[in-house]
Amino acid sequence: MKRILVWDLPTRLFHWLLAGGFIAAFVIANVAGHRDALFPVHMLVGLSLAFMVVLRLVWGFVGTRYARFRSFLFGPKAVLGYLRGVASGTGERHIGHNPGSSMAIFAFLALFLGLAVTGILMGGGSEAAEDVHELLAYALLVTAIAHVLGIALHTWRHRENIAKTMVDGHKEGAPDAAITGAKPVIALVFIALTGLFAWRVVAGYDATTKQLTLPLIGQTLQLGKVEGEGEHGGGHHDDHDDDDD
Ligand code: HEM
Ligand code: HEM
Asked: Which atom of ligand 1 is least distant from the CA of 154?
């Protein structure tokens, strides 16, 4: 057993940006109502996270060994067997994602995309999307808590600090289980594309009309009403001021 590289740099950057972004979007949504000056940041962060997820989907097909979906696509039998093992204290250690964390990962990816779709629909005026959006946000919160508890359990059971693994990319393992490189150039491309996307979102936002024209899609969203303009401004949302319901 040696210290070997298992998580490439794009995967690690994706992970911590996703975790940090989720917390930021969630906190902003709960402390700032949709009329607050900070609220557009909620959409900026949420949309950028969904864009990162799309890039991660591509990386799931062309990325390094343990970043590929093929390496952590487990059937229900494998998942149940693994969870039974965890319950009885005999859960085996995996070099890549284990069947338990793989479930959380696919849930995360779907939930982030669902939040972006319902967020966009809300900005387009759909009231129904609001309930779904909130439900997805809380489902994501529950998944994240389960994820972190799972990490804590693994850390304790296997005496292995896997949170650190997601930072430096290394684990103990057989030399032939290592990935070939950290892919720093792809990491730079990932950051550049995400930055470019976020910048296009900011450039597409008009603070006076509170309209956001989405990059790539081109759709225009109305983010709340323009102050002092009565019923003008796209008709999204209501008149009440209670933002924290
Ligand atoms: C709160 C928001 C979080 C989200 C949305 C999140 C999401 C994810 C995702 C999507 C992956 C898969 C990475 C990939 O292959 O692309 C992952 C894996 C991982 N995350 Fe998180 N994470 C969060 C918080 C955390 C925290 C706080 C820690 C550390 C304490 C952590 C530690 C890990 C580890 C160690 C893995 C690898 C798990 C394995 O061995 O299968 N995560 N997480
Ligand atoms: C990480 C992704 C996201 C998370 C965790 C998240 C979470 C939330 C939460 C918890 C709420 C509060 C619901 C309530 O209390 O009424 C909310 C509201 C909202 N979100 Fe998101 N959201 C995300 C992404 C997005 C995106 C991408 C958009 C738009 C493009 C968006 C637009 C909105 C809007 C318009 C509201 C309604 C605010 C209001 O009327 O009070 N969100 N979001």
From this structure: 40
pLDDT confidence bin for 226, thresholds 50/70/90: low
CATH of 2-222, picked from 1.10.1760, 1.20.1070, 1.20.950, 2.40.50, is 1.20.950
**What is the token pair recorded at 64?**
């390094």
Give this prediction's pTM: 0.91
Q: Ligand 1 site: residues with CB under 6 angstroms?
A: 11, 14-15, 18-19, 22, 56, 67, 97-98, 101, 105, 108, 144, 147-148, 151, 162-163, 165-166
Strand positions, DSSP E, 19-161: none
CA distance 64 to 82: 24
pLDDT in tens, 119-147: 999 988 888 999 999 999 999 999 999 99
Tell me, what DSSP letter sits at residue 128? H
Task: Kindly list the domain boundaries of the chain, sorted by start residue.
Answer: 2-222
Separation of CA 220 and ligand 1 centre (Å): 33
